[in-house]
Amino acid sequence: MSTNLSTSTEWPLWEVFYQPNDGKPFEHAGSVHAPDAEMALQNARDTYTRRNEGISLWVVPTDQITASSPEDRGPFFDPANDKAYRHPQFYSVPRAVKKRK
Amino acid sequence: METQKQLDEFQIRIDNGEKIEPKDWMPERYRKQLIRIMSQHAHSEIVGMLPEGNWITRAPSLKRKMVLLAKVQDEAGHGLYLYSGTETLGVKRKDLVEDYLYGTAKYSSIFNYPTLTYADICVIGWLVDGAAIVNQTMLAKSSYGPYARANLRICKEESFHKKQGYEMLAKMASGTPDQQKMAQDAVNRWWWPTLMMFGPHDSDSPNSAELIKWGVKTKTNDELRRHFVDRTVMEAEAIGITLPDPDLRYNEETGHWDFGDIPWDEFWSVVKGDGPMNRERIKARRKAYEEGEWVRKAATEYARKKKLKEEKAS
Ligand SMILES: [Fe+2]
Ligand SMILES: [Fe+2]
């Protein structure tokens, strides 16, 4: 029995997201290899939800995900930095109203 | 080229307890070390299915068979979480797998010992998974995000593994004289190999300091081993099992249990490939991999044709 390793097959990679509970947002779980979307879902179920960790699954081909790059973290997110007026603490409220909370 | 400034900034992030994510800058050596230990961890989970799988068809009851099947399936899952984590470092799973099947990558030596009786299954759950819990609880705090998260997921499943083994062993240890003998015999054989799972003493472990500096690990081999011994002594006592070490003694000063010399010669011979089951394990894994090739090919071809058909139809 011999295997020509350079020709051995590897299925494409899929990222797996699961919804832990009704009404909850989806979370990233990890990845699986599978030949197509249908089998990716089945593999994701067997790998990441053996104990009812999820009630719903998404699989996405890994190479279809575009991520922001960490080097640009500063400049990319800085439009949010100088906008304190987007937060409720920016505004003052009469003392009497404040107390009722 | 890595500049000193990059290295310093990286170290500051580690010292601040920040997690390193796949696309973040990291020293080449950090990446290499992670690939080595994460894939080694993954291979261990996969090979670790073999000694226990050996007893699935011969489990003493339907209940024990279901439990063992579920446990072994979890180990497959652990292997997959870890491969998935390792792939975020820019390596292909296929290359990782082929590196231990045909290359030089290692897996944990503990799985190169045979499982002679069903008592071995009880003891593996109690001791081997018990030791794995100590190690993986630490790794769940690792500085590399995907590795920490994989270990967190693993830890959630391990306590079932340990408890099912400990429960069975307790039953056996209070059973017939023959059962008691079987239980004690299995403990005698697995005790020292389990202590070796934590790796060489700190003084002989050249990688340790670097891994701790980078937060990949947060405790040394000897610290983890001592923690494991401390908690296992009590558990053995509670079920009337004797740990096979005449030098085991409580040390009032340190508050820990002192134990005898670990047979390191045996450890190194198993690491180098001369353990009782090394050849057997690799043979079984290669067979599974090579005989699975046509399935991977066929499914790939099926997916290709199905896609073609869908494109035509639309
Ligand atoms: Fe495991
Ligand atoms: Fe386990």
Please explain how this structure is put together:
- The complex is a heterodimer of chains A (101) and B (314).
- Chain A is α+β, with helices and mostly antiparallel strands.
- Chain A has one domain (13-99): Phenylacetic acid degradation B (Ubiquitin-like (UB roll), Roll).
- Chain A has three helices and three strands; from the N terminus they run ββαβαα.
- Chain A has a three-stranded antiparallel beta sheet with strand order 2-1-3.
- Chain B has 314 residues and is an all-alpha fold.
- Chain B is built from 13 helices and two strands, in the order ααααααααααββααα.
- The N and C termini of chain B lie far apart (50 Å).
- The model of chain B has no long low-confidence stretch (mean pLDDT 96).
- At the A-B interface, strand 2 and helix 1 of A face helix 4, helix 5, helix 7, helix 12 and helix 13 of B.
- The complex binds fe (ii) ion (FE2) (2 copies).
- One fe (ii) ion (FE2) is lined by residues 75, 129, 132, 158, 161 of chain B.
- The site of one fe (ii) ion has 5 residues of chain B, from helix 6 and helix 7.
Summarize the structure.
Chain A is 22% helix and 20% strand. Chain A is an alpha+beta fold. The longest helix of chain A is centred in the middle third of the chain and has 12 residues, at 37-48.
